[in-house]
Amino acid sequence: MFRRTVLHKIMDNSAAIFIPARLDSSRFPRKALYQIDGKPMIVRVLEQAQKLDLCRCYVACCCEEIKKVVEGYGGEAIITDPSLQSGTDRVFAAVETLKQKPEYVINLQGDTPVFTPQILIDILGALKEDKSIDITTPAVYCDDRSKIIDKNVVKVVFDGMENRASGRAVYFSRSPIPHGASFVYAHIGMYAYRYDSLRKFVSLPQTFCEKTENLEQLRGLQSGLSIRVVPVDGIALSVDTERDIEAALRAIRS
User: Does a cis peptide bond (omega within 30 degrees of 0) precede residue 178?
Assistant: First the structure.
């Protein structure tokens, strides 16, 4: 079982955090620069990550406009090809611009302005601890029926989940899995990769399940990459549409 690792205030030069961001979101145009309580969303994500003093943080963006905003708040940004299809592709493209490649790459979604920073420490610690794992990702226990049946809440089945222990991912789905269970684990869209595993992931073709569920992580799982799910405490509020802004504001102001 993964042992919780506390790494606060220790700079880890073997790892780096990358936050993918683009402007052309179909459901929420210009979402990355949307002002949330006086700050652009992408800046709020970056500042949450920087609270750890864990490792270098970069915004992997699609354009000069986002780059200027990030740098205006003292952050580092790397412009990547705006035609890239996924956040993971954007992260890898940003990593490839660095002369010194990090051994571990954390992919932090750019539309998660409210999250518990300790989650990043937990998934990085789990990846370092188990050399047989390619990717780690967090999930949170959930017994709320409304969320269990919500297709926007991605569920994950993994070894050891009945004991609330870290284990290898079996499947991710928008459907309630396992069928008939009184609880699920809701997946949080953050990932820690070994550099070589990330490079392999972006080279893989899309799979049937990935396209059917619209869940990118299934590409890695079906292609033989080992994904460890780490049960975590804390919150992670993502913003998919403008309707989600109110919940983010409440959390920020509480």
Answer: yes
* Domains of the chain with bracketed CATH: 11-112 (3.90.550.10), 117-187+196-234 (3.90.550.10)
Sign of the C-alpha dihedral, residues 53, 196, 19, 214?
A: negative
Question: What is the arithmetic mean of pLDDT over 103-107?
Answer: 97
**Would you call 170 helix, strand, or coil by DSSP?**
strand
User: For residues 98 and 102, what is the distance between their CA atoms, to the nearest angstrom?
Assistant: 9
The DSSP line for 102-165 is -SEEEEE-TT--EE-THHHHHHHHHHHH-TT-SEEEEEEEE--HHHHT-TTS-EEEETTGGGT-
pLDDT in tens, 185-195: 999 999 999 99
Q: Note the maximum CA span of the chain.
A: 50
User: Cα–chain-centroid distance for residue 211?
Assistant: 19
Burial of 6: CB neighbours in 10 Å, binned 0-12, 13-18, 19+: exposed
Q: In whole angstroms, what is the distance from residue 89 CA to residue 20 CA?
A: 9
Whether the pTM exceeds 0.90: the reply is yes
Buried b / exposed e across 159-190, counting CB within 10 Å, b at 16+? eebeeeebbebebbbeebbeeeeeebbbbbbb
Q: Give counts: helices (H), strands (E), the chain.
A: 9, 14
CA dist 107 and 93 (Å) reads: 12
Q: Find out whether 121 and 5 touch, Cβ atoms under 8 Å.
A: yes
Rounded to the nearest integer, the mean pLDDT of the chain is 91
Tens-place pLDDT, residues 192-238: 999 999 999 999 999 999 999 999 999 999 999 999 999 999 889 88
